[in-house]
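Predict both folds.
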Amino acid sequence: MKVFKDMLTGDEMFTDTYKYEEVDDALYMVIGKNITVTEDNIELEGANPSAEEADEGTDTTSQSGVDVVIYMRLQETGFQVKRDYLAYMKEYLENVKAKLEGTPEASKLTSIQKPLTDLLKKFKDLQFFTGESMDPDGMVVLMDYKDIDGEERPVSTSQNTV
């Protein structure tokens, strides 16, 4: 299994067990699923539990959300205005550029402008997530919803520098 990590913090962002694709050689788009996890029991959204598994009236804890966010322990964060996100992104890219200095991967940083501009057109609809360490200098993943095969699915987007 291949684990994609933030190169600055080492936080695990996603693995190759999720369906993902590269966007303009600059970003990864990871397709997630809405799930509910109940005390080590996973129930996919819309699934019917069997009659044998009827609720016995005990207290259980459950967590609902996007599988990538839950399993990779991503932490929700936010930006009030687009200007704040752009300031963060400028600093993040400068830190990545410094780390990639002299490597072929450094050229990928220039190709991020177009897909990022397209994503930010829907700024108010986006959710933002950091890695488990919640390091303010680390990568921020953008979450949006897209129609995939006739179904509205959560899609997370991270920089192709992981």
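Second protein follows, with its predicted structure tokens after the sequence.
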Amino acid sequence: MPTQILIFSLLPTILFLVAALVLLVIRGKNERRKKRGLNIPPGTMGWPFIGETFSFMRTHSCTSLGHYLEDRKSRYGKIFRSHIFGKPTIVSLDAEFNRFVLLNDGKLFEPCFPKSVEAVLGKNAMLLLSGEIHSRMKTLCLTFMSIGRLRTRFLIDVESSVTQTLDSWKENSPFPAQEEVCKVAFNLMVKNIMSMNPGEPETEKVRRAYAKFMKGVLAIPLNLPWSSFRKALQSRSCILKAIEELMEKRVHEVEMGTDEIGEEDLMGYVLKNSTLNAEEFGDLLLGLLFGGHETSTTAMTLIIYFLHDCPTAVQQLREEHLRIIKAKRERGEPKALTWDDYKQMEFTQCVISEALRLGSVIRFVHRKATTDVQFKGYDIPSGWSIIPVFAAAHLDPSMYEDPEKFNPWRWQGDSLNTARIEYYMPFGQGARNCAGLELAKLEFAVFLHHLVLNFDWEVAEPDSPLTYAFPEFPKGLPIKVRRLSLV
């Protein structure tokens, strides 16, 4: 017992000495680089061991860069060094450098996410892959989510998922909008990935597991019983087990001659056109759910939030979608939306673009320099982490007048300019841009079509989106709706 007491009493001192030693090693490396004549961007490495991680992770309004980034930009400029997530890091608020990083992905840079993300998503998640294996995975997804399939299959499923959820909304009874749009995105994804239908016991089991899974993707990696990280790992195992059982059932039915492997869902497509095993497909699925479901849910919630304070935009949206409905009636067509209807939603796309700009659903990514890189007179040492912050360009007053104001008309006609197009990155850029971007835009447009034609809404409780990596509404954006009779 006395020995244990002595150890515990010395533990803070030991930890401090270890942290100090790590800091000395890092500073020693920096000094050696300076002696070699490298011009590393200015900045500070923060506290021993933890660096500036907690300052970087502090939540703030999603329509701003937050105190940490604004403070460092005023001190050091748009490109500065720090020590984040245990690694020496270059943080970039420079639109040109961010685009340079994305366009040279796989050449000068590669993905470098925190270990906790890899542990939860899996090593085969497309978000974490690079090189040839990433290209193969992305080609698989792009082929499955082709424009032809969007026209013939996904459009029908998107509209079905949207109307099924919106039909359940009750008037004058507050509910969290984020939870409701989550159902739209989740049901669409699992239907097209594994042919799982909404409301079924197995679907609900996976949905509950996925909710816990998401809370741990970006959590502090403490593998303790009560931690979000441990719960996420357990949920990952639950989801992978469900996937493995579904794959085995599908293969067994084929072997017994009671069914054949079709290509109606991604699982069938993968079984027929690739050699991925259950774990690899599971990692692919979790990565797609993370990239597709979470971003879609956030984007649709932001659209509801921003439109609430912009009735002029809501009215113009209604006029656009009523014209589409009226034209369909005159032609004697059914109510169901067609691809031609979707392509007429021009102002709708302006609203979507503005919500993605102001909300910056994907605010930054993690990369690592695979070789020494020079940019604008700065040297980026090989092995250093790079964090390109896309939100910096989206909120830059030199590119957007009143950048913190929701203004969908800024995306019309002559108001566009080259800088905006090049540095607008809601879906990334280059070889690693989002494989599901066309599906996402289709999903948002169909959701808006049915929302504005069938409902008025108001915020039931004050709630604003806060963000670190993704925007999130602390209360889930409680709203009350009133049904309309426009169609």
